[in-house]
Protein backbone atom coordinates (compact mmCIF):
# COMPACT_ATOMS: atom_id res chain seq x y z
CA UNK A 1 0.00 0.00 0.00
CA UNK A 2 2.35 2.70 -1.15
CA UNK A 3 1.02 4.28 -4.32
CA UNK A 4 0.16 7.89 -3.59
CA UNK A 5 -3.44 8.65 -4.36
CA UNK A 6 -3.52 12.42 -4.19
CA UNK A 7 -5.60 12.40 -7.35
CA UNK A 8 -8.13 9.89 -6.06
CA UNK A 9 -10.61 12.73 -6.04
CA UNK A 10 -12.47 12.18 -2.79
CA UNK A 11 -14.66 15.26 -2.48
CA UNK A 12 -16.48 14.69 0.76
CA UNK A 13 -18.45 12.16 2.76
CA UNK A 14 -21.75 11.68 0.99
CA UNK A 15 -23.37 9.19 3.31
CA UNK A 16 -22.96 7.40 6.62
CA UNK A 17 -24.83 4.23 7.49
CA UNK A 18 -26.21 3.72 10.98
CA UNK A 19 -27.51 0.26 11.85
CA UNK A 20 -30.84 0.28 13.68
CA UNK A 21 -32.98 -2.58 14.94
CA UNK A 22 -36.19 -0.58 15.37
CA UNK A 23 -36.61 1.74 12.40
CA UNK A 24 -39.77 3.61 13.55
CA UNK A 25 -38.15 4.34 16.93
CA UNK A 26 -34.91 5.50 15.35
CA UNK A 27 -36.70 7.56 12.70
CA UNK A 28 -38.72 9.33 15.39
CA UNK A 29 -35.54 10.08 17.34
CA UNK A 30 -33.48 11.47 14.47
CA UNK A 31 -36.44 13.46 13.14
CA UNK A 32 -38.23 14.69 16.26
CA UNK A 33 -35.54 14.74 18.94
CA UNK A 34 -32.49 15.68 16.90
CA UNK A 35 -34.57 17.67 14.42
CA UNK A 36 -32.84 16.40 11.28
CA UNK A 37 -34.77 16.64 7.99
CA UNK A 38 -36.14 13.25 6.90
CA UNK A 39 -35.39 12.98 3.18
CA UNK A 40 -37.28 9.80 2.34
CA UNK A 41 -37.87 6.24 3.39
CA UNK A 42 -37.25 3.29 1.12
CA UNK A 43 -38.34 -0.11 2.34
CA UNK A 44 -36.69 -0.72 5.70
CA UNK A 45 -34.37 2.28 5.40
CA UNK A 46 -34.77 5.94 6.30
CA UNK A 47 -32.57 8.70 4.92
CA UNK A 48 -31.83 11.96 6.73
CA UNK A 49 -29.89 15.05 5.76
CA UNK A 50 -27.33 16.57 8.08
CA UNK A 51 -25.80 19.64 6.49
CA UNK A 52 -25.31 17.93 3.15
CA UNK A 53 -24.31 14.50 4.47
CA UNK A 54 -26.92 11.77 4.17
CA UNK A 55 -27.51 9.51 7.16
CA UNK A 56 -28.89 6.12 6.19
CA UNK A 57 -30.72 4.27 8.97
CA UNK A 58 -31.45 0.62 8.35
CA UNK A 59 -30.83 -2.99 9.32
CA UNK A 60 -27.47 -4.70 8.95
CA UNK A 61 -27.15 -6.60 5.68
CA UNK A 62 -24.97 -9.22 7.37
CA UNK A 63 -24.19 -10.23 10.98
CA UNK A 64 -20.66 -8.86 10.57
CA UNK A 65 -22.05 -5.36 10.04
CA UNK A 66 -24.41 -5.50 13.00
CA UNK A 67 -22.37 -3.36 15.38
CA UNK A 68 -22.72 0.09 16.94
CA UNK A 69 -22.23 3.20 14.85
CA UNK A 70 -19.08 5.25 14.72
CA UNK A 71 -19.38 8.24 17.00
CA UNK A 72 -20.75 11.11 14.93
CA UNK A 73 -20.03 14.60 16.26
CA UNK A 74 -22.85 16.97 15.36
CA UNK A 75 -22.10 20.68 15.36
CA UNK A 76 -24.48 22.93 17.25
CA UNK A 77 -24.27 26.70 17.75
CA UNK A 78 -25.15 26.58 21.47
CA UNK A 79 -24.20 23.39 23.29
CA UNK A 80 -25.84 24.37 26.59
CA UNK A 81 -29.16 25.13 24.93
CA UNK A 82 -28.94 21.86 23.01
CA UNK A 83 -28.12 20.03 26.26
CA UNK A 84 -31.22 21.46 27.97
CA UNK A 85 -33.34 20.45 25.01
CA UNK A 86 -32.02 16.88 24.96
CA UNK A 87 -32.75 16.58 28.69
CA UNK A 88 -36.27 17.93 28.21
CA UNK A 89 -36.78 15.28 25.54
CA UNK A 90 -35.62 12.55 27.92
CA UNK A 91 -32.45 11.67 26.03
CA UNK A 92 -29.83 9.70 27.93
CA UNK A 93 -26.85 11.99 28.50
CA UNK A 94 -23.57 10.08 28.70
CA UNK A 95 -21.38 13.08 29.55
CA UNK A 96 -22.62 16.65 30.09
CA UNK A 97 -21.05 19.55 28.17
CA UNK A 98 -17.34 19.68 28.90
CA UNK A 99 -14.35 21.56 27.57
CA UNK A 100 -12.42 19.07 25.44
CA UNK A 101 -9.66 21.24 24.05
CA UNK A 102 -8.69 24.88 24.32
CA UNK A 103 -7.66 25.85 20.78
CA UNK A 104 -5.96 29.06 19.72
CA UNK A 105 -9.04 31.10 19.02
CA UNK A 106 -11.84 29.00 20.48
CA UNK A 107 -12.73 26.45 23.11
CA UNK A 108 -13.98 23.11 21.84
CA UNK A 109 -16.93 21.84 23.89
CA UNK A 110 -18.53 18.43 23.57
CA UNK A 111 -21.42 16.51 25.09
CA UNK A 112 -22.08 12.78 24.71
CA UNK A 113 -25.50 11.17 24.50
CA UNK A 114 -27.04 7.90 23.35
CA UNK A 115 -29.59 7.35 20.64
CA UNK A 116 -32.41 4.82 21.33
CA UNK A 117 -30.30 2.05 19.80
CA UNK A 118 -27.60 2.74 22.39
CA UNK A 119 -25.16 4.35 19.93
CA UNK A 120 -22.97 7.00 21.50
CA UNK A 121 -23.17 10.31 19.65
CA UNK A 122 -21.75 13.71 20.51
CA UNK A 123 -22.62 17.34 20.10
CA UNK A 124 -19.72 19.72 19.53
CA UNK A 125 -19.45 23.47 19.59
CA UNK A 126 -16.57 25.84 18.96
CA UNK A 127 -16.94 28.71 21.39
CA UNK A 128 -14.88 31.77 20.38
CA UNK A 129 -12.50 32.87 23.14
CA UNK A 130 -12.15 36.49 24.10
CA UNK A 131 -8.55 37.58 23.71
CA UNK B 1 -35.13 29.33 26.91
CA UNK B 2 -33.79 27.43 23.95
CA UNK B 3 -34.97 28.13 20.46
CA UNK B 4 -34.94 25.79 17.50
CA UNK B 5 -32.08 27.84 16.07
CA UNK B 6 -29.45 27.46 18.72
CA UNK B 7 -30.21 23.80 19.27
CA UNK B 8 -30.15 22.91 15.57
CA UNK B 9 -27.71 20.22 14.50
CA UNK B 10 -26.12 22.13 11.65
CA UNK B 11 -23.75 19.52 10.30
CA UNK B 12 -21.41 16.67 11.15
CA UNK B 13 -18.13 18.10 12.37
CA UNK B 14 -16.27 14.90 13.15
CA UNK B 15 -16.46 11.13 12.88
CA UNK B 16 -14.51 8.73 15.10
CA UNK B 17 -13.01 5.70 13.35
CA UNK B 18 -11.54 2.89 15.38
CA UNK B 19 -8.05 1.80 14.47
CA UNK B 20 -6.07 -0.96 16.10
CA UNK B 21 -2.84 0.47 14.77
CA UNK B 22 -3.07 4.25 14.43
CA UNK B 23 0.23 4.53 12.50
CA UNK B 24 -0.89 1.95 9.95
CA UNK B 25 -4.32 3.56 9.63
CA UNK B 26 -2.76 7.02 9.26
CA UNK B 27 -0.67 5.76 6.36
CA UNK B 28 -3.78 4.28 4.72
CA UNK B 29 -5.97 7.37 4.98
CA UNK B 30 -3.12 9.64 3.92
CA UNK B 31 -1.37 7.63 1.21
CA UNK B 32 -4.09 5.39 -0.20
CA UNK B 33 -7.18 7.55 0.19
CA UNK B 34 -5.19 10.76 -0.26
CA UNK B 35 -6.97 12.67 2.49
CA UNK B 36 -5.17 15.70 3.98
CA UNK B 37 -3.66 14.82 7.35
CA UNK B 38 -4.40 17.64 9.80
CA UNK B 39 -2.45 16.74 12.92
CA UNK B 40 -1.54 14.02 15.37
CA UNK B 41 -2.22 14.27 19.10
CA UNK B 42 -0.90 11.23 20.96
CA UNK B 43 -2.95 8.22 19.86
CA UNK B 44 -5.33 10.44 17.89
CA UNK B 45 -4.81 11.17 14.21
CA UNK B 46 -6.99 13.75 12.47
CA UNK B 47 -7.87 14.03 8.77
CA UNK B 48 -9.99 16.41 6.76
CA UNK B 49 -12.57 15.12 4.32
CA UNK B 50 -14.34 17.99 2.60
CA UNK B 51 -14.82 19.90 5.85
CA UNK B 52 -15.60 16.90 8.08
CA UNK B 53 -12.84 15.83 10.44
CA UNK B 54 -12.04 12.13 10.68
CA UNK B 55 -10.51 11.08 13.98
CA UNK B 56 -8.59 7.80 14.00
CA UNK B 57 -8.36 6.45 17.51
CA UNK B 58 -7.79 3.30 19.51
CA UNK B 59 -10.95 2.31 21.36
CA UNK B 60 -10.79 3.45 24.99
CA UNK B 61 -13.05 0.66 26.26
CA UNK B 62 -14.08 -2.77 24.96
CA UNK B 63 -17.61 -1.38 24.45
CA UNK B 64 -16.28 1.04 21.85
CA UNK B 65 -14.05 -1.50 20.11
CA UNK B 66 -16.18 -2.23 17.06
CA UNK B 67 -15.83 -1.47 13.36
CA UNK B 68 -16.63 1.93 11.94
CA UNK B 69 -19.96 2.84 10.43
CA UNK B 70 -19.74 2.60 6.67
CA UNK B 71 -18.59 5.98 5.39
CA UNK B 72 -19.45 6.64 1.74
CA UNK B 73 -16.82 8.84 0.10
CA UNK B 74 -17.98 10.84 -2.93
CA UNK B 75 -15.67 10.71 -5.92
CA UNK B 76 -15.96 12.17 -9.40
CA UNK B 77 -14.79 9.07 -11.26
CA UNK B 78 -15.57 5.89 -9.37
CA UNK B 79 -13.85 3.52 -11.81
CA UNK B 80 -10.59 5.46 -11.69
CA UNK B 81 -10.72 5.78 -7.90
CA UNK B 82 -11.51 2.06 -7.54
CA UNK B 83 -8.52 1.19 -9.72
CA UNK B 84 -6.14 3.45 -7.80
CA UNK B 85 -7.15 2.09 -4.40
CA UNK B 86 -6.89 -1.45 -5.74
CA UNK B 87 -3.45 -0.74 -7.19
CA UNK B 88 -2.42 0.53 -3.76
CA UNK B 89 -3.22 -2.91 -2.38
CA UNK B 90 -6.56 -2.37 -0.63
CA UNK B 91 -9.14 -5.13 -0.67
CA UNK B 92 -12.42 -4.55 -2.50
CA UNK B 93 -15.63 -6.44 -1.79
CA UNK B 94 -17.08 -5.87 -5.25
CA UNK B 95 -16.71 -3.92 -8.49
CA UNK B 96 -18.26 -0.48 -9.03
CA UNK B 97 -21.95 -0.99 -9.76
CA UNK B 98 -25.23 0.92 -10.05
CA UNK B 99 -27.01 0.76 -6.70
CA UNK B 100 -29.95 3.04 -7.51
CA UNK B 101 -31.36 4.76 -10.57
CA UNK B 102 -32.44 8.23 -9.60
CA UNK B 103 -34.46 10.51 -11.89
CA UNK B 104 -31.41 12.45 -13.10
CA UNK B 105 -28.45 10.26 -12.29
CA UNK B 106 -27.27 6.76 -11.58
CA UNK B 107 -25.86 6.20 -8.12
CA UNK B 108 -22.74 4.05 -8.30
CA UNK B 109 -21.04 2.41 -5.35
CA UNK B 110 -18.23 0.03 -4.54
CA UNK B 111 -17.17 -1.32 -1.15
CA UNK B 112 -13.66 -1.81 0.21
CA UNK B 113 -11.74 -2.39 3.45
CA UNK B 114 -9.35 0.02 5.12
CA UNK B 115 -6.15 -1.19 6.82
CA UNK B 116 -8.18 -1.85 10.02
CA UNK B 117 -10.73 -4.00 8.16
CA UNK B 118 -13.43 -1.31 8.43
CA UNK B 119 -15.90 -1.51 5.55
CA UNK B 120 -15.98 1.73 3.53
CA UNK B 121 -17.51 2.71 0.22
CA UNK B 122 -16.95 4.96 -2.75
CA UNK B 123 -20.02 6.59 -4.25
CA UNK B 124 -20.54 8.62 -7.38
CA UNK B 125 -23.58 10.26 -8.92
CA UNK B 126 -23.26 9.78 -12.66
CA UNK B 127 -25.60 12.07 -14.66
CA UNK B 128 -27.84 10.19 -17.06
CA UNK B 129 -28.37 11.44 -20.60
CA UNK B 130 -32.07 12.26 -21.03
Biggest interface and residues each = A-B, 48 and 54 residues
| Structural class assignment of chain A | alpha/beta
From the spread of the alpha carbons, the general shape of chain B counts as globular
Number of strand segments of chain A: 8
What is the CA-CA span between the terminal residues of chain A?
45 Å
CATH topology of the largest domain in chain A, anyone?
2,3-Dihydroxybiphenyl 1,2-Dioxygenase, domain 1
Taken as a percent bin, the fraction of beta residues of chain B is 35-45%
Mean pLDDT of chain A: 92
Largest sheet of chain B: 4 strands, mixed
Characterise this structure:
The complex is a heterodimer of chains A (131) and B (130). Chain A has 131 residues and is of the alpha/beta class. Chain A has two domains: 14-60, 2,3-Dihydroxybiphenyl 1,2-Dioxygenase, domain 1 (Roll), CATH 3.10.180; 68-131, 2,3-Dihydroxybiphenyl 1,2-Dioxygenase, domain 1 (Roll). Chain A has helices spanning 23-33, 79-88, and strands at residues 10-19, 38-42, 45-50, 53-58, 72-75, 93-102, 106-114, 120-128. In chain A, strands 1-4-3-2 form a four-stranded mixed β-sheet, covered by helices on one side. The radius of gyration of chain A is 17 Å and the shape is globular. Classes of the chains: A alpha/beta (131), B alpha/beta (130). Chains A and B meet through strand 1, strand 5, helix 2 and strand 8 of A and helix 1, strand 1, helix 2, strand 5 and helix 3 of B.
Keywords:
heterodimer; A: 131 residues; alpha/beta; 2,3-Dihydroxybiphenyl 1,2-Dioxygenase, domain 1; 2 domains; 45% strand; globular; disordered N terminus; B: 130 residues; 4-stranded mixed beta sheet; 8 strands
